[in-house]
Write a structure and sequence with these properties.
The protein is about 0% helix and about 40% strand. The chain contains no helices and 18 strands. The strands form 5 sheets. Strands 9-13-12-11-10 form a 5-stranded antiparallel sheet, with no helix packed on it. A 5-stranded antiparallel sheet has the order 14-18-17-16-15, with no helix packed on it. Strands 4-3-6-7 form a 4-stranded antiparallel sheet, with no helix packed on it.
Length: about 200
Amino acid sequence: MSVPASANVTALIATFSTTGAGVKVGTTVQVSGTTSNDFTSPVSYTVTAADTTSVTYIVTVTMRPVNVTHLAGPLVGAGNADGTGAAASFYWPYGITSVGTNVYVVDTGNSTIRKIDLAAGGAVTTFAGTAGSTGSTDGTGAAARFFYPSGITSDGTNLYVADTYNHTIRKIVISTGAVSTLAGTAEVSGSTDSPALFNSLRV
């Protein structure tokens, strides 16, 4: 069994499904479900069949390296430039989600939503909003305004943004870039359900 480097092997979970057979970890009989083990040393699993024959398995864990690569933005410094790789810049990127080969980033400090096209070698463009210009305007692409958004998710067709200082949930149609306010009232904070009000949404 291979796990990423630096993984906590004391908390790995073994899952069992028994049908007419018993599974033992050491001398402890397990039922269908999960058990937690410390895999820092080999763990013995004895499988006892319905006819009482048994086979013992020894599980050992090896650590495999995890390769981290630099996708976009400079290693130091902030900005709002579109471009590929280190030529692009961000200002306090916070939330992230992906749809297909595109990654969408909430660029909080710029009050924009950025798109990273993995199929185009990591090309970064500004998908919605205008850098340095805050507000709550609904619109398409650069015409829309956000106020320090922080969270983002997607259902595959739309992006949903936690527009933090507007206290609203914004919806962006991926195919068109059209931004609308889905819930909440811009710059009005609260905790009511009807009408829906939010207070400094963060994800």
